[in-house]
Amino acid sequence: MLCYTLQYHLTYNMHQVTCVQLHQWISEERDFLLIDVREEWEHEAYNIGGILISSGTLITRKNELPIDKDIVIYCEKGIRSAIAIQRLEALGFEKLHNLTGGMKAWKEFQKIFN
């Protein structure tokens, strides 16, 4: 329950992208950037093609991110990505979207729709 409460608090006013929406964006070849803020070992174990910029290095690598393009940020469950989005918003980024439920939700989505 604490994890859910924390995630709700972190993402209350945040732009969210569901797995269905992300799948649609990918299928439509929408112009956006996909960023994985997990650790390298997590990314190597399973990823969906996002650029790996771990949450610990995100701020120092902020210049690699376009300020005028939609960016979908994801992690395992959506908490680290929400924190990453808050940090980037404080630096002036606006077109940020959190993948709702992160990789955990994406894996479940893939089981159902593939």
Describe the overall structure.
The protein is an alpha/beta fold and 114 residues long. Helices cover 43% and strands 16% of the residues. The protein contains five helices and five strands, in the order H-E-H-E-H-E-E-H-E-H. The protein has a five-stranded parallel β-sheet. Helix 3 links the parallel strand 2 and strand 3. The relative contact order is 0.22.
In short:
With 114 residues, the protein is of the alpha/beta class. The protein has helices at 2-11, 19-27, 40-45, 79-90, 102-113; strands spanning 16-17, 32-36, 51-52, 70-74, 96-99. Helix 1 (2-11) packs parallel to helix 4.
Structural key phrases:
114 residues; alpha/beta; Oxidized Rhodanese, domain 1; 5 helices; disordered N terminus
| Main beta sheet | 5 strands, parallel
Number of helices, where a helix is a run of at least 4 consecutive DSSP H or I residues: 5
Question: CATH class, anyone?
Answer: Alpha Beta
The average pLDDT score comes to: 90
List the helices and strands and how they pair.
Layout: H1 2-11, E1 16-17, H2 19-27, E2 32-36, H3 40-45, E3 51-52, E4 70-74, H4 79-90, E5 96-99, H5 102-113
Parallel strand pairs: 1-5, 2-3, 2-4, 4-5
